[in-house]
Structure formats: structure tokens, C-alpha cells
Design brief:
Number of strands: 4
Oligomer: single chain
Shape: elongated
Strand order of the largest sheet: 1-4
Number of helices: 4
Structural class: alpha+beta
Radius of gyration: 20 Å
Length: 131
């Protein structure tokens, strides 16, 4: 229990950074679904409230997974450090020694202001308001 809880919490914190707090919270909240599934496989009875809850949770997960969010947005200049690659459209800064395409690495770097359109989720580079 202690190890599983610790690992799940660490993964939750990482997920908040990469997919945004609301989406990470929604995904994390389906953990009881897996607990219920395990209980049923161990012989617990399937009841109407359990089936209704499973359908509602499944619908919520489906809505999150199929969400498409794309519009023109502006990134303000920022200097920060995090793991990144140079093939995803936000990291076009130079290196003293070039990093091979697709190689994840971390170092302080600066993003210049840019306005563009692409599909995205709330993450370290997409904290903007919508009108």
C-alpha cells in the first residue's frame, strides 16, 4: 500500500505538469474504477449502482480522451528548465553541441514570443486564457 500510494502520487505530480491539473485529476480519479473491477474479478457481485457508476466514469474518460483543442494562441517569452525534445514545435533554441532529433534533455533555455495554431492540452507551455 505505501509503495503503491507513493508511486501513484509521484506519477500524479508528473502528470499534472505534462497534461495539466484538471486532466491529471480526472485521470487519477478513475482509480476506483480499477478497484471495482478487481473486486468483481475476486467475486464481488455486480449491482445496478456499480454499472451506472462504470458507465458514467467511462463516459467521462471518453470525453477527455477524445477532446480536441486547437486554436491560435500566443506564447510569451519565458526562460525555464524542463525535459524536452526539439521535434515538437516549441523548442527551437540553439545548443553549443547540437542535440540529436528526438533526444530528451534538460537545461535552462529561453522561448521567444510566438503565435501559432496546433492541437494542444494544458501543459508547461499552454497556460493561456480563452475568450
Amino acid at each position: 500500500g505505501l509503495a503503491a500510494y507513493g508511486v501513484s502520487l509521484a506519477l500524479f505530480i508528473v502528470a499534472m505538469r505534462h497534461v495539466g491539473t484538471a486532466r491529471a485529476g480526472a485521470y487519477y480519479s478513475v482509480a476506483p474504477f480499477f478497484g471495482a473491477l478487481l473486486a468483481v474479478t475476486m467475486g464481488e457481485p455486480v449491482t445496478w449502482p456499480l454499472l451506472v457508476a462504470a458507465v458514467l466514469m467511462g463516459a467521462g474518460v471518453w470525453l477527455h480522451v477524445t477532446e480536441r483543442h486547437e486554436h491560435s494562441h500566443t506564447h510569451q517569452p519565458i526562460t525555464h528548465e524542463h525535459w524536452h525534445t526539439h521535434d515538437e514545435g516549441h523548442h527551437d533554441h540553439e545548443h553549443d553541441q547540437p542535440a540529436p532529433a528526438g533526444t530528451r534533455h534538460s537545461h535552462p533555455h529561453t522561448h521567444q514570443a510566438v503565435t501559432h495554431t496546433h492541437p494542444h492540452f494544458p501543459d508547461a507551455h499552454h497556460h493561456h486564457t480563452h475568450s
